[in-house]
Every structure is written in structure tokens, then in C-alpha cells.
Task: inverse folding
């Protein structure tokens, strides 16, 4: 993580995002920027810059800069910040060191997911930061207000302050990310480009960079900068040879990595063990008491801590049982007249077996989606080889840009559909935890079922 200390950024007022009204200034400032088409969720940031599928190639070949300023940022500061937040969330952050990033959940009393967020602790920039640390929580806009309200209500007598930070998020992904960041942070220029002072060549003052390992690629950096400076910051990245890349490409990478958007991909019954990215893999060990110095995990749940709301459900499933559903990636029939929308029912015959979430077009795989589906359906699919081709992968050529057809998604066992559109579970990104549960083994031994 790094913090930019100097800048010539002009501070202009920029709208704070809300789920329905936010419009990024980059929609007007960057050539080709286009909103998501009708029928898609509207984010208020560029869905693409004129080449929807081609822009995703920057993630593979160079570096793509993505405007994610629709995300909102909560700032928590004060002497009790780490211990206070640690008592409320699923992650262990009481030993979170400066410069580190992790993730967390807030659960309800029954262990259902209410909020998911990224947690960033900036590098120490002054002596007081060690005694009064600051954390940034990056949240989806639809759930941000409820998250802020809940955390504010839980302050009581703790020495913490909770308020929205006027920061915008940009993500850079691709093999050239480190080179782009070196140019942008140090004021160097991309090869062959002349030095300029307007627009700026360096990132604005107050920019914080952090790494998030859950994006699906290690070649990525996220930047938080003052909202009034987002246009200057994005321009500095483009001057450093990053390619303007729409949110559609980022969403495709997120779906391929099976990372959920709480608003689109989860429902009010979701528990953490249904999401591999939340629990982490492998996660077969029994829960136990954490030590004080244990740092956070790279996932959303630390299995060796307790005393937070909903923790009993996490512990019970980890030690004794299995989650009732799983979040999986689907291939979607690209020739169907009906494009599934988040929240629609996934059916097997006439029986509802799940719900569809994010649906997006990938530059290689065509339409793909995330969905929550009954674990029993996944078990039958994996065990029976359903939805697989001769090589064990998803039927059809995965490198083709042609959309998946109904025939190429034909099943060997269970036919899954959303409103008449055929789906296929992707076995390459679907993992079943079949390891023995330590708690169950102990119970069986106590009851004399096992020696």
C-alpha cells in the first residue's frame, strides 16, 4: 500500500454516489464512455468505452483502468477502532497492521449475511496513526447507508468515529500494472509520450493504493483518491499507459473468480459457508481460540475468533455440517431470447432449486453468471458429470467468442433453466468440501458410532 503525498489536483465538487442518482464525472471526461444498456443494473460509471469485449483483453495483455467510483467508503477512526470493529464483524482485525487489506462480513443473529466489505488500513503517515488508527471500509452503494447506520448505532462509549469518506475507487488490472503504477506514482511517463503538466502525470495528493487478492488476479491495484480528483487520477493512469476499461470487463472477471456482489448475488438467507470466497479454501479445520497476535485471513471470515453476531452459525457449519446451497458460476445459453436477471428462479423441471445473480458477457466464454443453488444439485452434477464435455470441461469451446447454445449446454442428468434459458454449472470453478467434520467425528465417537 502506498500514499501519494503531493499533487497539483484541482478540487472540484463531485457528487457522492447513491444507488440511483450517481453519475461519474468520467462519463463526460473520457472519450467513448457509455452507461450500461437498458435492462442492465445501472451503476453510474462507464460500462465500456466503445469496445465492450475487447477492453477485457487489457487485463491479459497490458493494464486496464476501471472506474469503480460508484462504490462508497466508510472511514472509522479513533483509539478503539481495531478492537471495536473486531467485536462486530467476522474478520479478525484487532491485529491488522498498517498497509494491509482484508475483508469482513456483518451477519444477523441467525448467521445470515447482511453486509460484505473490503477493509483497508493505510500506511502509518504520522506518529498519531499508531495510537488512533484509521480504517476504510469499501462497500456496495445499495447497502452502504444501512452499514453506516448500524455501525454508528454500535459506537456507544467506544473511542471511535464513523463517517463517510469522500473517496473514489479506481482499479487497475493486468500484467503491466506495476509499471503503470510506477509511472503514475513517481511522475514518469509511458514510453514514447511527452512530458505534460496538464492533465497531470502523477496521482493526486491523498491517494491510497491497496492490493485485494480476491479480484481473481494477482496483477491488480486499487486506488482510493479524493472524489474531486478522480478525473485527474484516471487521466494520470491513462498517461501512464493504462487502457480505459469498462465495468463490464471487471464484472466478468469477478464472476469468473466466483466473488459475489451482495446486492445482486445473495439473498436474505445466505450464510457465509455458501460462498467459498467468504470462507476461503481449504477450510476444513475445526474452529479454535485465536491468539491475540493472529492477523486477518485473505477471505471474509476468520474461523478462529468468536463473540460476534451470527458466529454460532459459522461455527456449527464448520464443525458439524454442510451449507444448504452453494454460489457457483454458470455458463448461459447465449442464443436464448431471454437474458436472465438477478433474483430470477433457477429451476430443474418445475422445481425451484436456486436463484440467479450477476449475468455478464465475457470476452472468451460469452454469457456467464453467478447463482445460488442447492448443494444437492451441485453434488449430483459433479458426481454424474452433468454439463461436461468429453474432456471434463463445460461443453463447447471455452475459447470461442460465440455464445453458448442450448445444444452445447445439453445435460447428461439435470436440466437447469432460468425462464427457459439453459444454464450449465462450471465444474472448473466449483469445489465441494467433502472432508470429515471434526465436530461430527467427535459426536460419533462419543455416541459409540466410531472407535
Result:
Amino acid at each position: 500500500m502506498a500514499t501519494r503525498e503531493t499533487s497539483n489536483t484541482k478540487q472540484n465538487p463531485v457528487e457522492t454516489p447513491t444507488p440511483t442518482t450517481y453519475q461519474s464525472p468520467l462519463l463526460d471526461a473520457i472519450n467513448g464512455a457509455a452507461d450500461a444498456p437498458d435492462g442492465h443494473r445501472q451503476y453510474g460509471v462507464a460500462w465500456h468505452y466503445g469496445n465492450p469485449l475487447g477492453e477485457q483483453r487489457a487485463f491479459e495483455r497490458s493494464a486496464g483502468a476501471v472506474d469503480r467510483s460508484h462504490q462508497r467508503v466508510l472511514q472509522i477512526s479513533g483509539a478503539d477502532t481495531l478492537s471495536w470493529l473486531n467485536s462486530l464483524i467476522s474478520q479478525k482485525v484487532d491485529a491488522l497492521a498498517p498497509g494491509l487489506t482484508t475483508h469482513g462480513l456483518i451477519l444477523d443473529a441467525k448467521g445470515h449475511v447482511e453486509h460484505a466489505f473490503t477493509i483497508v488500513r493505510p500506511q502509518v503517515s504520522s506518529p498519531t496513526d499508531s495510537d488512533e488508527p484509521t480504517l476504510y471500509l469499501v462497500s456496495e452503494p445499495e447497502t452502504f447507508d444501512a452499514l453506516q447506520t448500524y455501525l454508528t448505532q454500535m459506537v456507544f462509549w467506544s473511542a471511535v468515529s464513523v463517517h463517510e469518506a469522500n473517496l473514489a475507487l479506481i482499479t487497475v488490472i493486468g500484467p503491466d500494472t506495476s509499471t503503470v503504477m510506477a509511472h503514475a506514482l513517481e511522475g514518469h511517463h509511458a514510453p514514447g509520450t511527452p512530458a505534460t503538466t496538464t492533465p497531470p502525470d502523477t496521482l493526486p495528493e491523498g491517494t491510497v493504493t491497496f492490493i485485494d487478492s480476491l479480484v481473481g488476479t494477482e496483477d491488480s491495484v486499487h486506488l482510493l483518491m479524493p472524489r474531486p480528483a478522480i478525473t485527474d487520477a484516471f487521466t494520470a493512469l491513462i498517461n501512464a499507459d493504462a487502457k480505459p476499461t469498462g465495468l463490464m470487463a471487471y464484472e466478468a472477471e469477478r464472476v469468473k473468480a466466483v466473488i459475489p456482489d451482495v446486492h445482486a448475488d445473495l439473498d436474505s438467507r445466505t450464510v457465509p459457508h455458501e460462498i467459498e470466497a467468504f470462507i476461503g479454501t481449504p477450510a476444513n479445520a475445526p474452529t479454535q481460540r485465536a491468539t491475540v497476535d493472529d492477523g486477518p485471513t485473505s477471505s471474509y471470515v476468520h474461523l478462529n475468533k468468536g463473540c460476534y453476531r451470527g458466529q454460532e452459525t459459522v461455527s456449527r457449519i464448520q464443525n458439524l455440517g454442510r451449507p444448504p446451497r452453494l454460489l457457483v458460476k454458470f455458463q448461459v445459453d447465449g442464443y436464448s431470447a431471454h437474458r436472465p436477471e438477478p433474483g430470477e428462479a433457477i429451476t430443474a423441471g418445475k422445481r425451484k432449486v436456486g436463484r440467479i445473480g450477476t449475468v455478464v458477457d465475457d470476452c472468451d466464454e460469452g454469457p456467464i453468471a453467478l447463482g445460488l443453488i442447492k448443494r444437492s444439485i451441485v453434488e449430483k452434477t459433479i458426481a454424474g458429470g452433468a454439463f461436461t464435455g468429453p474432456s471434463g470441461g463445460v461443453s463447447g469451446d471455452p475459447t470461442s467468442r460465440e455464445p453458448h447454445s442450448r445444444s452445447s449446454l445439453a445435460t447428461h442428468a439435470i436440466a437447469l433453466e432460468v425462464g427457459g434459458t439453459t444454464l450449465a454449472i462450471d465444474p472448473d470453478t466449483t469445489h465441494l468440501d467433502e472432508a470429515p467434520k471434526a465436530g461430527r467425528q467427535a459426536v460419533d465417537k462419543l455416541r459409540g458410532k466410531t472407535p
Notes: Residues 324-429 form a domain with the Elongation Factor Tu (Ef-tu); domain 3 fold (CATH 2.40.30.110). The radius of gyration is 23 Å. The first helix runs from residue 26 to 29. Confidence is low (pLDDT under 50) at residues 3-13, 191-198, 386-401, 405-412.
